[in-house]
Amino acid sequence: MALTVTLVSAEEEVWHGEASLVVAKTVEGEIGFMTGHEPVLAILAEGKVRITQADGSKVVASAQDGFLSMEGDELTIVAGHAALES
User: Fold this and answer.
1) Burial of 75 by CB count in 10 Å (0-12 exposed, 13-18 middle, 19+ buried)?
2) By CB count within 10 A, which of 21, 42, 63, 74 is most buried?
3) In this predicted structure, what is the pLDDT of residue 28?
4) CB under 8 Å to 52, separation ≥6 — which residues?
5) What is the pTM of this model?
6) CA–CA gap between residue 47 and residue 25 (Å, rounded)
7) Which residue in 76, 75, 60, 62 sits closest to 8, CA to CA?
8) Distance between CA atoms of 56 and 28, rounded to whole angstroms?
């Protein structure tokens, strides 16, 4: 089973899909999410969001000014600014 991940900025949906692992930076430090993770609501810090997709490929985005919410197997990351990196 995979996580359903949505990463949005103030302007647009940056990425949406299934992932096996997501690591993001919060004001408390880095946190990783996999299926079955307990519910979390945290303030997003400026940094990288690293997404390992269900097929093993990687997606990296920069994000700042926002929050993340984990509920069930759905992770939502809302950032004031976010963009995929090449």
Assistant:
1) buried
2) 63
3) 96
4) 19, 20, 21, 22, 58
5) 0.94
6) 6
7) 76
8) 27
Both tokens assigned to 25: 């930076």
CA-only gyration radius of the chain, Å: 11
CA-to-CA separations, 52 to 55, 61, 79, in angstroms, rounded? 8, 12, 19
User: What amino acid is encoded at 51 in this protein?
Assistant: I
* 84, two tokens: 């995929």
| Upper half-sphere CA count for residue 68 (Cβ side, 13 Å) | 29
Residue with tokens 């089973």: 1
Per-residue pLDDT tens over the stretch 29-86: 999 999 999 999 999 999 999 999 999 999 999 999 999 999 999 999 999 999 999 6
Looking at every residue in the chain, the average pLDDT score rounds to 96
How far is it, in rounded angstroms, from Cα 39 to Cα 53?
Answer: 21
